[in-house]
Amino acid sequence: MSKHVPIRTCIGCGEKKPKRELLRIVRDEDNNISFDPTGKASGRGAYLCPKIECLDLAFKKRAFSHALRCEVSFGTLQKIKEELQNEISRRGEIK
Prior knowledge:
By secondary structure, the chain is α+β, with helices and mostly antiparallel strands. It has a single domain, classed as YlxR-like (Hypothetical Cytosolic Protein, Chain: A, 2-Layer Sandwich), CATH 3.30.1230. It is built from three helices and five strands. Strand 1 and strand 2 form a beta hairpin. The protein is globular. Pfam families: YlxR. This is YlxR family protein.
């Protein structure tokens, strides 16, 4: 019998994928927004494919504010964008 695999939707492209293949951004109870490399931090999460195109699309659509159900400041978005770009580079994804 196969184990259940949680599926999540990318906020950039809208593709459904196994949770472990996606990057997670989390808003904690104090409304701090950060990249969650473990995928286990408590709080409201949003998922993104590890691709630059999905990251850019999510920014263009203002998907972070929508998915995290709070207004995300420009400074916070820039910080998250840098962290996600570093993680995408680390994973070896190609633009």
